[in-house]
Design goal:
This protein is mainly α. The chain has eight helices and five strands, in the order βββββαααααααα.
């Protein structure tokens, strides 16, 4: 239900293609759902729509719990939607999560998703799946504390404990205990991501085995051994962080499913 074309005063992204509608350009805005799009993208817009419920924007940064839903599993919608999109059309892409997407598009889409709050626009219009991967990694990196940290038993302590226990069974037991003591949102989101990364590692087309994925996600998911790490500490921590993620990915999927399969329908993006 479009109104006549209007002139854009503040640059905003087009809901259909994701590219920014520049100042002074004409655009179309729907009376019902307030959708804003390029005039050239009008034909790709669905003909039927409904008024959108108001969803307050998410903060630009925060701890994971700030973005999590109120009912379990406590996995932010942004994480669910990115993972769902990657699994839908990205498991045939070589170098998934290692190949970078356009930095500008990653920034624009992350900002767009945070501003949307719980009412996320579809990511199917993002042509390059590596951009979606970049949004997910950038979101996780931007948290005030890494996913593997929190008030109880931060995973950052694992390099000197559970991951170095020579007995595999004892190491697994220690690892499971530490994960279960993480704050609920951190624990559920970590479980959801581990199941996703295992899927990626099992795809021959991606060529991203557990070792490759642990190198990519180690610094993102696991904190440093000190609050304000020096360059030397960062360099020393990096292999330890990768080792932690590799050990997490060695745990059986059934362990991770135990955290996210409660009310699994909550993880299906609307």
């Amino acid at each position: 239900d479009p109104v006549p074309p209007l002139q854009v005063i503040r640059p905003e992204p087009c809901h259909i293609c994701g590219s920014r509608i520049r100042f002074g350009k004409t655009a179309i805005k729907c009376c019902q759902c307030q959708l804003l799009l390029h005039t050239k993208c009008r034909e790709q817009c669905p003909s039927l729509c409904a008024p959108r419920p108001h969803h307050p924007a998410w903060p630009r940064e925060g701890v994971l719990a700030d973005f999590a839903p109120s009912t379990p599993p406590l996995v932010p919608t942004l994480v669910v939607q990115c993972v769902t999109e990657v699994e839908t059309r990205g498991l045939t892409e070589t170098g998934l999560y290692r190949v970078p997407g356009s930095e500008q598009l990653v920034r624009e889409w992350k900002r767009k998703l945070l501003r949307a709050g719980g009412a996320l626009p579809a990511l199917s219009s993002v042509a390059d799946i590596h951009v979606v991967c970049g949004v997910l990694k950038d979101f996780l990196r931007g948290l005030k504390e890494p996913l593997g940290e929190g008030a109880a038993s931060p995973l950052t302590r694992l390099p000197g404990t559970a991951t170095d226990i020579p007995d595999d069974a004892a190491s697994d037991t220690a690892l499971r205990h530490v994960v279960s003591k993480l704050p609920p949102a951190n624990r559920d989101t970590l479980a959801f991501l581990m199941l996703h990364l295992l899927n990626v590692s099992h795809s021959p087309d991606c060529k991203m085995d557990v070792l490759n994925l642990s190198r990519v996600f180690g610094p993102t998911l696991v904190g440093h051994s000190s609050a304000n790490p020096t360059p030397l500490v960062i360099m020393e921590d990096t292999p330890r962080q990768s080792k932690v993620v590799a050990r997490l990915l060695s745990l059986p999927p059934s362990f991770w499913k135990g955290f996210v399969e409660t009310e699994q329908e909550n993880l299906v993006p609307m």
